[in-house]
Each structure stands twice: as C-alpha cells, then as structure tokens.
Design a protein that fits this description.
It is a single chain. This protein is an all-alpha fold and about 190 residues long. Helices cover about 80% and strands about 0% of the residues. The chain has helices spanning about 5-15, 20-50, 60-80, 85-110, 115-150, 155-180, 185-190. Helix 2 (about 20-50) runs antiparallel to helix 3. The model has no long low-confidence stretch (mean pLDDT about 95).
Length: about 190
C-alpha cells in the first residue's frame, strides 16, 4: 500500500470526526438497512439449509452482494455526510433517493413475486432496471465531480464496489426467481409460514 493511498484513507476516514448527531442517525439507518438485508437473507438461507432446503448457488449471491454493497456504502456515506453534503443537496441527492426507492421497491416486489408471480414480477423488473439506470446516472455525476473538483479516490473506489455488490445481489436474486425460488417453500414451512 503506497503512502499516498494511506494518506487518502486517513483523510477520508478522518471525516468521521466532523459527523454531527444527524449524520450518525442517517449513517446508521442507511448502512444498517443494508446490513439488515444481508443478515435477514443470510439467516433465511442458513435456517433453510439446516432443515433440508436445497437452494441453487444463485440464492447465496443475495446476502453476498448485499454484504459487499453494505461495506461499500459504509465508506461512501462518510463523504456524503461531510465534504460532499452541499453537493448532494442538488440533483445528485435526488438521484440517490430515486435509486434507493427503486432498489427497495424491486427487492420487496421480488419477495412478493414468490406466491403471485404474474402480478409482481414485471413491476419488480421495471424497478430493478430503473435502479441500475439511475446508478449509471449517479456514476456520471461522480466522475464529473472527480474530474472537475478532484474529489476522493476512496469515494470513487467505493462506488465500484457499490455497483459490484448491487449487481451480484440483483442478478443472483433474479436468477433464483427464474429457477423457481428453490428452497423457499421448505424454509417457509420450517419458519411456520406455510
């Protein structure tokens, strides 16, 4: 690890020191939401596997992708709550809100698609695609800021892993759905929902 990278990391993570109480609330709520998704989906798979459910490999991509995403936003959000807070009050913040809306909506609709596929699958696909389209819009904004305002390398790398985590999670989730949500029926039975 080079000294310049160490310096970049020290400066970036040092911004925790200027967090105000509301920044901690937003940080814990946002990162906690994704950690919760990773924990919930991981626990679902673990309970099922321990009780005879057979999941396709793609199912395990959901908590894996959510974990990568959570780790990446735990870094990215430091900059958002400090040095880039004013910038985000413009269009970039709105883009983030659209991504969060589409991302959460697509996950909820994919869950709902388990017992009633035709009704929820298409809106789930629309919101999934929308979340990726707006993620690319967000990337353009970040690269413009990086090139014109010399923003952080740390933040740019965190965005790479946000896309990696988001992609692994959602492609895995959709493939699991296409394969018939193998293992879900047995796990719901074990949990007392079927």
């Amino acid at each position: 690890m080079t000294s310049s990278l160490l310096t970049e990391l020290r400066v970036y993570f040092g911004r925790f020191r200027v967090f105000e109480p509301i920044d901690w609330v937003v940080y814990v709520a946002w990162v906690g939401l994704m950690v919760g998704l990773m924990a919930a989906t991981g626990a679902f798979l673990l309970v099922g596997a321990m009780n005879g459910a057979v999941f396709p490999a793609e199912a395990y991509m959901v908590p894996l992708g959510a974990g990568i995403f959570a780790a990446a936003i735990s870094v990215d959000t430091i900059g958002h709550r400090t040095v880039y807070k004013e910038v985000l009050r413009g269009g970039e913040g709105l883009v983030h809100h659209i991504i969060i809306f589409a991302g959460i909506g697509s996950c909820m609709l994919l869950c709902a698609a388990y017992p009633a596929r035709p009704m929820y699958a298409i809106p789930a696909m629309v919101l999934t695609v929308l979340s990726f389209v707006y993620s690319l819009v967000d990337e353009v904004m970040h690269w413009r800021r990086y090139l014109t305002q010399k923003s952080d390398v740390v933040e740019m790398w965190s965005h790479v892993f946000i896309l990696v985590g988001h992609g692994i999670m959602m492609v895995g989730w959709w493939r699991w759905y296409q394969l018939g949500y193998g293992g879900v029926a047995r796990t719901l039975e074990v949990l007392g929902f079927a």
